[in-house]
Amino acid sequence: LRITGLIGSLRKDSFHKKIFETYQELCKDQFELVEGPISEIPLYNQDVQAKGFPSAVQELGQLIQSSAGILFFSPEYNYSIPGVLKNAIDWISRLENNPMGGKASSIISGSPGRLGGSRMQYHLRQVGIFMDLHFLNRPEIMLSEMNGLFNEHGQLSDQATIERLKKHAEIFFEFTKARL
Ligand SMILES: Cc1cc2nc3c(=O)[nH]c(=O)nc-3n(C[C@H](O)[C@H](O)[C@H](O)COP(=O)(O)O)c2cc1C
User: Fold this and answer.
1) Can you tell me which atom of ligand 1 is nearest the CA of 110?
2) Cα 151 from chain centroid?
3) How many other CB atoms are there within 10 angstroms of residue 133's CB atom?
4) Ligand 1: which residues within 6 Å by Cβ?
5) Most buried residue, 12, 65, 104, 165, by CB count within 10 Å?
6) 8 Å CB contact between 70 and 105
7) Distance from residue 127's CA to the centre of ligand 1 (Å)
8) Rounded to a whole number, what is the distance in angstroms from the first to the last CA of the chain?
9) What is the pTM of this model?
10) Closest ligand 1 atom to 146 CA
11) Per-residue model confidence as pLDDT tens digits over 39-88
12) Cα(162)–Cα(135) distance, integer angstroms
């Protein structure tokens, strides 16, 4: 079973990228988590679309099409979805037969503050209504004071968080299988 992971931060040392990498290991017994690259996707422009979908969009669409579900690993930007992630979703939504349609999905976010990216999560769920994503309702993973969960090598090291992610992977696996 393959799941596409979409990461809403492009920076090299992104905490969400590191959470994604840890999750990729933790979920190995249940499914294969593959990163859906979004950094080469241009800004959405209907004139560009009219000339043909950029290859980065086509490739992401094919990966999503071949996946049973989508996991988002994303920060919150100004109480909402980072533009790079929303832009990728906007492109995907214009492909024929919306490849996200009907897929199981879940969101993992963190923040340096207390709210763990929760406001972004509910905006993303709203966008998911039109995309026809089927979100897992619980457990919600909103990691507060995220910076303290990593060791000096930048790896996610907080044991309680690792256990939460492992449990999430087991539950998301069952949820996804039930949707197939
Ligand atoms: C443009 C911008 C907007 C941000 N807005 C929020 C916000 O609304 N809420 C929040 O909790 N953190 C906010 N942050 C802080 C991010 O949560 C923090 O930088 C986080 O580490 C980004 O994720 P990353 O490490 O995966 O890049 C913002 C950061 C940036 C760069």
Assistant:
1) 17
2) 23
3) 23
4) 9, 11, 14-16, 75-79, 111-113, 115, 117
5) 104
6) yes
7) 20
8) 10
9) 0.98
10) 21
11) 999 999 999 999 999 999 999 999 999 999 999 999 999 999 999 999 99
12) 21
